[in-house]
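User: I want to check something. If I give you two sequences, will you return the structure for each one separately, not as a complex?

Assistant: Yes, each is folded on its own. Here is the first sequence with its structure:
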Amino acid sequence: MKLVVGLGNPGADYLWTRHNLGFIALDFWAITLDAKWADRPKWQSVVAEAHVGGEKLLLIKPQAFYNKSGEVLQQIAAFYKVAKSDIVVVCDDFDLPYGQVRYRASGSGGGNNGLSSVVAHMGEDIKRVRIGTDSALRQQMGDADFVLSRLTDAEKAELPALLPQVIEKITENL
């Protein structure tokens, strides 16, 4: 079994925000896999199940808010006894230019509070795919407001080209 965890915040107030790019990427992938989302309150998550390459895949969107994502992942990984090598986390990264996709096999949270939560609960050896969000708006707004601001129309227009790259990076490294 493989777990792919998209980081984001639950609720309509956070739809299309930069911090929800992990959720957006998994929503796209669930559509391409014809996987349906189901509420899993026991794990404070929404989960979609699929099979890829003959192996069970769980797409997970924690609903405990961004900065508590590690707690949710730890519970699910322990329940299913999933090795860290079979987990990939997908999140935004304001230190990368918008649309750049970066894979790392391990490391710190790098200033990303959701990823820092994952590292605190799972250790640094968790694979991650980061989606760049940086733009000139960041300097105008400040970091906290920037990550919670909605994607611009121009940024949304780039998603059809960007999201397949994200999914490719995940599948290459699962």
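And separately, the second sequence with its own structure:
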Amino acid sequence: MPGYRKLGRTSSQRKAMLRGLATQLIYHGKITTTETRAKEVRKIAEKLITLAVKEKDNFTTENITVKVPQKDKDGKRVKTVENGRKVTEYNDVEKTIQKDSPTRLAARRKILSVLYNVTQVPENGRRKRSESKKVCLANVLFEKHAPKYSGRNGGYTRMIKIGPRRGDAAPMVLLELV
């Protein structure tokens, strides 16, 4: 007997489906799915959250100086002519960055290898590329979920049975983060 459910799919299809469900669970906080799928997604999500909780404070902060191009009132770069060439003007800006330790970086890469990329669409529903932005789910786990679950020893998800599905009477559940 394998240690996982096959869910009537090939291995690549099953992996893609579980990755998609885990991504949506982390991003939205809850999903509605069948009971057997929820039990498999729960395993994946709990491991990712545990990884984030272990590495949540494992970074250093550094102050760096960054060259940022000057911009005019229209948002275009300010250019001056030097030796017959147009040259962009730059300002030096101090920024504070977080530098991951090697173990946190490995955890971040492990999380990103499991979860898919998510693009956040604006609230008004318009799917313009310029208004959409990518969401890093590793940051969501480290900054939002890890502090919330730092006092817990597992058990980050809850399954609530919501009855049979209309078409085939498959038992449906609501899987949510506690």
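Because they were folded independently, the notes below concern the second chain alone. The longest strand covers residues 59-69. The CA atoms of residues 70 and 76 lie 8 Å apart.
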